[in-house]
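Retro notes (design track)

What went well: tokenization of the new backbones is finally stable.
What didn't: we kept losing track of which sequence belonged to which structure.
Fix going forward: every design gets posted as structure first, then sequence, in one message. First example under the new rule, 551 residues:
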């Protein structure tokens, strides 16, 4: 039996920073990671075109001046290989790898009330105990495939983008299918269209998308960025999305249509999420404002796609721009002007099965060498559901969350003491530039552990009433946002997961923006963790264990 004071599950962006903070405090801790190496999202998603949609220099960790000064981001929106190199560099620089155990997929985490311990079991039978378990599982780490007949019968190669092979995939002259046109599909399609023999895109619903406008970062620009890091992170901290992009404070209806068009023309050509987040705030809340802006983007699509019929198919009809997370694209719409790229609208002619040689729709058979499923994730709670998590009295988390998700601050859960989530459901992370949200969550969890150590507490549990208050607040925030109407992972929709396909809203994301979220969790900490019951009355380290807290 391996005992640690803290076990972190997951060695992605959150797990890496969490173990750094624990190591700095001298807390006996380990990271258990299912993959064969660190990196999380950037370890798994190796598909062509995978890259940040956050400006690289706002995505990196902010905790070390030395790290900021030595790392040169080469592109404004850096690609997967470089991002993985960065995370490896961080782990090596700070000596974090020694805390990590790879190929260790935790399958069960049970709270032992008598001992005030968590008992963890990995897939290979290894067992661990810890006083605190920190779930850094990732928001989008459980890929989902369509439930199609015949998937196993396909004789070519097929994979979900999340499981893109580590070795290069030969695609030249190949007939390739991409199923799915979310942020991932849109990145893949833009990247491979001119590299494959033939590409057929199977689109169920189009997504609103706008140009990423990526570019290199020169030495001089990087030097300038280094000089401005304090300012950059301060801006991220005061914007709702945790980006450099600040909303236009003028009222949508206070300016003329010409002024609106001038703003949109400028934003469309600017890099990154500006088109979404530098826009008028009414885009997110007001149907009419959203419709006018959506029509503007529809026109941009029509101007880029030569075949008017194809252009119309690429324009979403069931939701407005920005009410789902906006995919950022590079040459995406132009891909459809190529003679080797074909669009199949599977809302009209659904895929009925996978065959030995390809895909069959209600209309005809298609033959492929490779089928790429860019079909999304069992988002946010999927990774929790994969672990048999049991709290006080053996209550299963999956049962507690079956009808409604409820947490306190997105960080803790009533009935699950000493279990922390630096980027959990209902935290600020999903709706924020992810690492900015993660640093907030990790810092908060670490401060709680420090507080408990100082005061001699060994047990922390959210009260039922605090949890209810937070969950009501999160739910209320959805009421203000148009996004509540969209079928997307922000509202817990996934047609491939039983129970999540009906479009019933699951309140997974805190929508109040990063500054409000930080205020809320800081206020709890400032009031001696009001809403948590902290106690020292139960539990002891198991006999023969290592010290609970290194001194
Ligand atoms: P997604 O947004 O959920 O998109 C999945 C796509 O697959 C949708 O077009 C969906 O169609 C389609 N689909 C799902 N099941 C299907 C089925 N059974 N048959 C046919 N089509 C099916 O997933 P994603 O594209 O992987 O993106 C998820 C999130 O990952 C993004 O929102 C973003 O937060 C993150 N991401 C970020 C980046 C980045 O630039 N940093 C890149 C990629 C992803 P429907 O719309 O009809 O359901």
């Amino acid at each position: 039996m391996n005992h640690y004071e803290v076990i972190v599950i997951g060695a992605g962006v959150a797990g890496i920073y969490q173990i750094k903070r624990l190591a700095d405090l001298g807390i006996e801790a380990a990271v258990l990671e299912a993959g064969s190496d660190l990196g999380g999202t950037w370890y798994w998603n190796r598909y062509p075109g995978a890259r940040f949609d956050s400006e690289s220099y706002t995505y990196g960790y902010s905790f070390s001046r030395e790290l900021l000064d030595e790392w040169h981001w080469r592109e404004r929106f850096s690609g997967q290989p470089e991002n993985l190199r960065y995370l490896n560099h961080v782990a090596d620089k700070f000596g974090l790898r020694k805390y990590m155990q790879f190929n260790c997929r935790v399958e069960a985490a049970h709270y032992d009330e008598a001992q005030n311990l968590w008992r963890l079991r990995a897939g290979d039978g290894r067992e661990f105990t810890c006083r605190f378990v920190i779930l850094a599982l990732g928001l989008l780490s459980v890929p989902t495939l369509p439930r199609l007949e015949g998937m196993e019968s396909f004789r070519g190669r097929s994979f979900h983008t999340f499981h893109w092979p580590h070795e290069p995939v030969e695609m030249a002259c190949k007939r390739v299918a991409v199923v799915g046109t979310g942020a991932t599909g849109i990145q893949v399609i833009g990247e491979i269209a001119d590299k494959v023999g033939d590409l057929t895109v199977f689109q169920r619903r189009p997504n609103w998308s706008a140009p990423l406008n990526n570019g290199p970062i020169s030495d001089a620009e990087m030097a300038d960025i280094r000089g401005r890091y304090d300012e950059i992170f301060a801006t991220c901290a005061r914007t709702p999305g945790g980006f450099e992009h600040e909303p236009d404070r003028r009222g949508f209806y206070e300016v003329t249509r010409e002024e609106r068009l001038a703003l949109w023309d400028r934003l469309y050509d600017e890099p990154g999420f500006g088109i979404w987040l530098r826009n008028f705030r009414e885009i997110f809340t007001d149907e009419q404002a959203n419709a006018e802006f959506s029509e503007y983007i529809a026109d941009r699509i029509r101007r880029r796609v030569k075949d008017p019929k194809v252009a119309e198919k690429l324009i979403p009809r069931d939701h407005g721009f920005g009410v789902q997370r906006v995919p950022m694209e590079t040459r995406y719409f132009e891909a459809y002007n190529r003679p080797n790229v074909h669009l199949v609208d599977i809302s009209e002619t659904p895929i009925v099965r996978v065959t030995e040689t390809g895909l069959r729709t209600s209309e005809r058979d298609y033959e492929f060498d490779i089928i790429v499923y860019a079909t999304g994730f069992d988002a946010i709670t999927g990774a929790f559901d994969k672990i048999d998590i049991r709290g006080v009295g053996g209550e299963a988390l999956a049962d507690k969350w079956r009808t409604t998700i409820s947490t306190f601050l997105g960080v803790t859960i009533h009935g699950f003491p000493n279990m922390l989530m630096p980027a959990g459901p209902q935290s600020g992370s999903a709706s924020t530039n992810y690492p900015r949200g993660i640093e907030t969550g990790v810092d908060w969890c670490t401060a709680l552990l420090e507080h408990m150590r100082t005061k001699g507490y060994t047990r922390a549990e959210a009260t039922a009433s605090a949890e209810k208050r937070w969950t009501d607040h999160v739910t209320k925030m959805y009421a203000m946002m148009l996004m509540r109407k969209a079928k997307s992972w922000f509202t817990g929709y996934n047609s491939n997961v039983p129970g999540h396909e009906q479009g019933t809203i699951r309140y997974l994301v805190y929508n109040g923006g990063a500054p409000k979220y930080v205020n809320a969790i800081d206020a709890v900490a400032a009031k001696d963790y009001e809403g948590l019951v902290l106690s020292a009355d139960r539990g002891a380290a198991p006999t023969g264990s290592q010290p609970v807290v290194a001194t």
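Added context from the reviewer: The mean pLDDT is 95.
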